[in-house]
Amino acid sequence: MNAAARAAPVVVAVDGTQRSTGAIKYAIHEARRRGTDLQVVHVAPRALPVGGSMPSMGIPTDALVEVAGRILDEVVDQTRSLAPDLAVDGVLREGRRVVEIPAAGARGSLVVLGRETRHGTERVLGGSTTAGVAARASVPVAVVDEDWEPTARDRVLVGLEPAAGEVLSYAFPLAAARHALLQVMHVWRVPDAYAAVDEERALAGEWVLDATRLLESTVADWRDSFPDVEVEISVVPGRAAQALVDAAVRADVLLLARHRRDVEHLGRLGPTIRAVLGHRGTPVEVVPMTGVPQHAPLVLERFGEVLKS
């Protein structure tokens, strides 16, 4: 592939702590698989939070940028030593992470972050970088544990609402590129006030069959366009976040759609995505929806592989 046709890079955001270790490994893994370059981004803060309810520590901006530059150089050197076969560049930005990381990743194909580890008051006051970036980014955002290592489960899991079928334009090419089974899961739950209805197993069974048929219809065109991708349809009862996290134990990656309505309210994510991002485990990729219908035959190449000719 020549430079002009080279795919957009994988972008990994680092903070100079161990939290970024798994993210760097995942980004290297994805850049190699996609045949792209790797871009390492670090954001210099304009103030230094000290935790608790205390105000931020006043330190000259130049000093913060100088330290940030050293952090970035160190991580870039580390990444190049781990992946001498990849072209690795460093990008230093200044400001709020939840704004600057999506901006840096806008020309990439994927943004990778370490999973949030702060809890309690510190997280409430400082906010969640992971959720903030996932809510704003214009490209998929992967959230990865610090101890992540490559797995070979050969399974991609996607949480799907029938109305959010656009996410399949990302899921099917990804499963094809990974030579993996694609599990399409829908989770349903009867509201507590109507839980007695669930006792009617015949009614529940009929509803599950109807939902399964609807999902089958949603994936049908994509299935025809990607005949080598084995598809497994799952319709299960329960709380969506927990059911997805439990099922993801058997997968290499979990895909979740960020609906277009969230784009209109920057900084917001649905409760299911937020809850899933709070669980350690399988990497999660949050995929932004555009609201524009995607047709299977138009997806010819992705992740560096010709998928349909």
Automatic annotation (TrEMBL):
It holds the Pfam family Usp. Residues 10-144, 154-288 form the UspA domain. Signal peptide: none annotated. Belongs to the universal stress protein A family. This is Nucleotide-binding universal stress UspA family protein.
